[in-house]
Amino acid sequence: MLLSTPGNYFLGKPQFLDNPHGWIPHIPFAFWLMEVIDPSVLVELGTYSGNSYFAFCQARKALGLSTRCFAVDTWQGDMHVGNYGKEIYEQVSKINQKEFAGFSTLLRMEFDKALDSFSEGSIDVLHIDGTHTYAAARNDFDNWLPKMSHQGIILLHDTEVRRPGFEVWKLMEEIRKRYKLLEFPFGEGLAAICTGENPPAPINELIELSKKDLQIIQWFEILGNNILLEKEREDLKQETKKWKQKTAAINVELLKEKRKTKTLKKQLGQNHPNPKP
After folding, report:
1. Domain range spanning residue 48?
2. 259 falls within a domain
3. Number of Cβ within a 10 Å radius of residue 5
4. pLDDT digits over 225-248, tens only?
């Protein structure tokens, strides 16, 4: 089977998952991609809670790859998720420092300001997942394109989302006319775009095979959905546990109040005995 790799790491389980869940179905492909191309440099634009980034880092660490990983984000929020506090960055930074500090760097800045941190032709894998308007996605794609290596792959997320403010699909209409690519039309959509003149052989092979056999993409979808459903089940178990604990606490308080009420009724009965007939 073409998907088979020496380690078959794409069959593994992610260790670090958080909300939101939109990227979770694509983690098996992230694992597979890391193993088959062993990129020299991987950059992610828009990391938020780290589901995608930590999947790349986990594979890099487990497989003993040589990849240097960089996450670029302000960790302040945007028009899609709103503004949020420092706790998101602190959690991401804590995991990164504990698990991946030897090869992973968090760049807390705007995407355009991070451009100077990378030389032209140096990035093998770029994941773009920032603001999803057409103008923002186009800007990110164009500005970072010169940084891509001769075998560069750009990943675009949310290619299937058509809610207000999500316009990556418009950019995809232009990209399809110019680049060889692989699309995953599930989850919220992901595209792997070959921007280099010499794409890695495994990617070329997968693209050609997927044209003949759609089941290739479905395999990734099945594996990804398994991870997503397991995460949702675990979240539900934790939420149920919290509600049970809350219910138990309320029951304790209710019992206390019932005892108080019983005592009060008893006192009222003593102070105001029923009149004799």
Report:
1. 12-229
2. no
3. 17
4. 999 999 889 888 888 888 888 888
Torsion angle of the four alpha carbons 85, 70, 113, 155, in this order, in degrees rounded to the nearest 10:
-100
- What is d(CA 152, CA 154) in angstroms, rounded to the nearest whole number? 7
CA distance 53 to 232: 20
Say how many CA atoms lie within 13 Å of 110 toward its Cβ. Answer: 6
pLDDT above 60 for 1: no
What's the count of helices (H) and strands (E) in the chain, helices before strands? 8, 9
Q: Is residue 58 in some structural domain? A: yes
Q: CB neighbours of 210 closer than 8 A, spacing ≥ 6?
A: 182, 216, 217
Give tens-digit pLDDT for 179-205.
999 999 998 999 999 999 999 999 999
Hey, which residues does 126 pair with through a beta bridge? 43, 154
Q: Going by DSSP bridges, is the β-strand pair 123-128/41-45 parallel, antiparallel, or unpaired? A: parallel
Tell me the β-bridge partners of 190.
Answer: 157, 184
State the average pLDDT over residues 109-120. Answer: 97
- Say if residue 49 is exposed, middle or buried (CB neighbours under 10 Å; 0-12, 13-18, 19+): buried
Residue 246 is assigned to a structural domain of this protein: no
Q: Rounded to whole angstroms, how far apart are CA atoms 98 and 102?
A: 9
Total number of domains constituting the chain: 1
- C-beta of residue 205 within 8 angstroms of C-beta of residue 174: no
Mean pLDDT along residues 4-30: 92
For residue 40, the 8-state DSSP code is S
Rounded-to-integer distance, Cα 152 and Cα 192, Å = 10
Evaluate whether residue 273 is within a structural domain.
no
CATH of the domain at 22: 3.40.50.150
Alpha carbon distance 29, 26 (integer Å): 6
Q: What is the pLDDT of residues 94-110, one digit of tens each?
A: 999 999 999 999 999 99
